[in-house]
């Protein structure tokens, strides 16, 4: 049996910190690591343009990746525990399909002329503000519907099904909207759906960071009741947990985290479902007091790696984020889980 | 006379779900320091009653008091410090070790962070020692056998330091030896910790052998008393007897109803040979009687050898197998008489 490894937390923190350097340095124009560190600590690089590049693009991209990775990992973990289902992910409550609907409606109702100029560059400028707002509105609308329905639901399994069903209805409406719109607009929707850490500006971060940090704080305080919920609702109730109230808080926190990420980065796949499993194996326990911070850090590390890999250094190529997360990440997780299966039981 | 308020007492309790009550007007008590066994046929509502007593589902009517306090009127955390349960719910806790699982039982005693202080750790160790699970708790819960997991879950309940422990069918998946061991352990815990212990089981023989107090539940209601009282006043027979099956108070086991059939045989032997020979003969259709006259006399003459006198002939059989073969070869008048009167011998 793998022993509980609390000492890994500072190691993971250090790895995440170190990865910030290549994540900021590497891209179409690669900046030497020495100069990157100089800029990050407030010094002067050998080329002043690098300060501008880091300040306007690279740093906000890296911070977005850290926040989004941590947010999706933690949201996924809380959903897996709440629903006692290893396949649960942050979008299980329909948040991403809600955001998708918001974006699809926004794109469809905004005439092509209004932001025709931005075609080909993705959802930036005026279109970006609108899309983020629409995604957030859609995500929280669907979350509100699921939360409202959850008041009448006793069992976690039923709630899970309700979430999936609301998501299915929402996705169907998205398809309907896309059928009725200009194919070029549908194309924009598809690009949004591929996910990206790149479009977040420093101004976006002023909204995105507080949302994620608030969600992480709430989730961080849930370690104790989530541990009790590992044993199921009956045992949790018998230990003094007010299950319905706890469930509501968990869902609001996960909705905040997943909804925030989806609004700013699109529906980022894979990280939310897989990172909790990796973190569990790394720290060797399901104790949330250790697992929650570990999941946040492993999520941040994974997202940084994906952010780096989606911009192969020295090229203009941009590989869509969800291609990186799914194509590269998923096989790695499968390999790790299969290796672990041999000697121990995984959730 | 002053009402003794110690322990659990419920009056006029109606249990069930929303519109359909399973039982109404249930009244009973469980004293501290005693092992109370709730016994009844499958489907009698044992789990529903226990879940209601544990406040996992609200009563339709009536009150439940523990040490004089109405359990419905106190905060969930306070209740969890007084009452703990072991349920039939599947426990799938991922990568938790046995010790981590037991430590979760400290939930109602720890602060918001769930951090365990020195006293909490001492209580956890004590609970583990009390159920003899010291060698189990270093392992993952998922790797334990049913009986081992039952012990760890019982330790988890003890870690709540309850005044009352409720266990729903804790022995359902255990073999006979482990069942006796578990109930014996629970009786000792009740004595040592001056705690009320209520266990439900459908194993009547075990209940009557080990319980201090019995709650007998069937579709018509609840009868309470000492095991002896309930046997003598016919309550056990009323609940469990069927046309084909009768409870034999002397042996404490069930016998097939036509135990009076078959030809009389007299067994002359010391225990355990007498009981075993009687059982073997009964299986072959003989009726073992305490005194002459009898059609046959079987006398133990040391080792596994018996002298058999029947119809004027004297035979010596050299083994148990030979005795069984003889008993079958000389059939009783009714060849099909299924007189499996396993315990009709005189004690």
TrEMBL record, chain A:
SUPFAM superfamilies: ABC transporter involved in vitamin B12 uptake, BtuC (SSF81345). GO terms for biological process: siderophore-iron import into cell. One of its GO terms (molecular function) is transmembrane transporter activity. InterPro entries: ABC_BtuC-like, ABC_transptr_permease_BtuC. It is found in: Cell membrane. It is a multi-pass membrane protein. Keywords: Cell membrane, Membrane, Transmembrane, Transmembrane helix, Transport. The chain crosses the membrane at residues 59-79, 91-117, 129-149, 156-180, 207-227, 248-278, 290-309, 321-340. One of its GO terms (cellular component) is plasma membrane. The keyword Transmembrane applies. Belongs to the binding-protein-dependent transport system permease family. FecCD subfamily. This is Iron complex transport system permease protein.
From TrEMBL, chain B:
SUPFAM superfamilies: P-loop containing nucleoside triphosphate hydrolases. It comes from the Bacteria. GO terms for molecular function: ATP binding; ATP hydrolysis activity. CDD domains: ABC_Iron-Siderophores_B12_Hemin (cd03214). The keyword Transport applies. Keywords: ATP-binding, Nucleotide-binding, Translocase, Transport. It holds the Pfam family ABC_tran. Residues 8-244 form the ABC transporter domain. InterPro entries: AAA+_ATPase (IPR003593), ABC_transporter-like_ATP-bd (IPR003439), P-loop_NTPase (IPR027417). This is Iron complex transport system ATP-binding protein. It comes from Pseudonocardia thermophila. The lineage of its organism: Bacteria, Bacillati, Actinomycetota, Actinomycetes, Pseudonocardiales.
């Amino acid at each position: 049996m793998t022993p509980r490894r609390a000492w890994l937390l500072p190691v993971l923190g250090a790895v995440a910190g170190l990865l910030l350097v290549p994540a900021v340095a590497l891209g179409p124009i690669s900046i030497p690591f020495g100069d990157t560190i100089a800029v990050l600590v407030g010094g002067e690089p050998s080329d002043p343009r690098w300060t501008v590049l880091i300040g306007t693009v690279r740093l906000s991209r890296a911070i977005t990746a850290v926040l989004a990775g941590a947010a999706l990992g933690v949201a996924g973990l809380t959903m897996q525990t709440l629903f006692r289902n290893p396949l649960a992910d942050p979008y299980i409550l329909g948040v991403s399909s809600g955001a998708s609907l918001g974006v699809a409606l926004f794109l469809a109702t905004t005439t092509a002329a209004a932001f025709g100029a931005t075609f080909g560059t993705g959802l930036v400028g005026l279109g970006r503000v609108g899309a983020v707002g629409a995604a957030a509105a859609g995500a929280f609308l669907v979350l509100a519907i699921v939360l409202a329905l959850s008041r009448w639901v006793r069992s976690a399994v039923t709630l899970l099904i309700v979430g999936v069903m609301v998501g299915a209805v929402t996705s169907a409406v998205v398809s309907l909207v896309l059928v009725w719109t200009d194919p070029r607009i549908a194309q924009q929707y598809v690009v949004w759906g591929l996910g990206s850490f790149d479009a977040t500006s420093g101004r976006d971060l002023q909204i995105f960071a507080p949302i994620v940090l608030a969600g992480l704080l709430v989730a961080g305080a849930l370690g104790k009741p989530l541990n009790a919920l590992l044993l199921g609702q009956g045992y949790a109730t018998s230990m003094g947990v007010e299950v319905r109230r706890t469930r509501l808080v968990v869902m609001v926190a996960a909705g905040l985290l997943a909804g925030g990420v989806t609004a700013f980065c699109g529906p980022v796949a894979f990280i939310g479902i897989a990172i909790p499993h990796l973190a569990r194996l790394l720290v060797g326990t399901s104790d949330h007091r250790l697992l929650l911070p570990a999941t946040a850090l492993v999520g941040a590390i994974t997202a940084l790696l994906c952010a780096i890999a989606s911009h192969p250094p020295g090229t203009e190529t941009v590989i869509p984020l969800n291609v990186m997360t799914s194509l590269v990440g998923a096989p790695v997780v499968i390999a790790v889980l299969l290796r672990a299966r041999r000697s121990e039981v995984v959730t | 006379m002053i009402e003794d308020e110690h322990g659990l007492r419920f009056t006029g309790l109606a249990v069930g779900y929303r519109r359909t009550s399973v039982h109404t007007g249930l009244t009973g008590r469980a004293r501290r320091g005693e092992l109370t066994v709730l016994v009844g046929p499958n489907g009698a509502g044992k789990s529903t009653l226990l879940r209601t007593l544990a406040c996992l589902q609200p009563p339709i009517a009536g009150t439940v008091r523990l040490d004089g306090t109405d359990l419905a009127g106190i905060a969930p955390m306070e209740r969890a410090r007084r009452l703990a349960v072991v349920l039939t719910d599947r426990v799938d806790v991922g990568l938790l070790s046995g010790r981590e699982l037991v430590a979760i039982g400290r939930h109602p005693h720890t602060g918001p962070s769930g951090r365990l202080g020195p006293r909490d750790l001492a209580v956890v160790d004590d609970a583990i020692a009390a159920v003899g699970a010291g060698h189990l708790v270093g392992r993952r819960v998922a790797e334990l056998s049913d009986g081992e997991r039952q012990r760890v879950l019982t330790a988890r309940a003890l870690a709540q330091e309850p005044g009352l422990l409720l266990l729903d069918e804790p022995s359902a998946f255990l073999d006979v030896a482990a069942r006796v061991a578990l109930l014996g352990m629970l009786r000792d815990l009740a004595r040592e910790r001056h705690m009320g212990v209520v266990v439900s089981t459908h194993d009547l023989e075990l209940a009557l052998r080990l319980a201090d107090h019995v709650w007998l539940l069937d579709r018509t209601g609840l009868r309470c008393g000492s095991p002896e009282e309930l046997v003598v006043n016919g309550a056990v027979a009323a609940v469990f007897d069927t046309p084909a099956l009768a409870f034999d108070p002397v042996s404490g086991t069930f016998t097939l109803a036509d135990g009076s059939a078959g030809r009389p045989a007299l067994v002359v032997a010391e225990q355990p040979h007498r009981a075993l020979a009687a059982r073997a003969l009964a299986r072959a259709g003989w009726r073992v009687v305490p005194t002459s006259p009898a059609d046959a006399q079987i006398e133990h003459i040391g080792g596994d050898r018996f002298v058999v006198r029947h119809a004027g002939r004297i035979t010596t059989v050299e083994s148990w197998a030979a005795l069984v073969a003889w008993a079958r070869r000389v059939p009783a008048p009714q060849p099909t008489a299924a007189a499996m009167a396993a315990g009709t011998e005189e004690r």
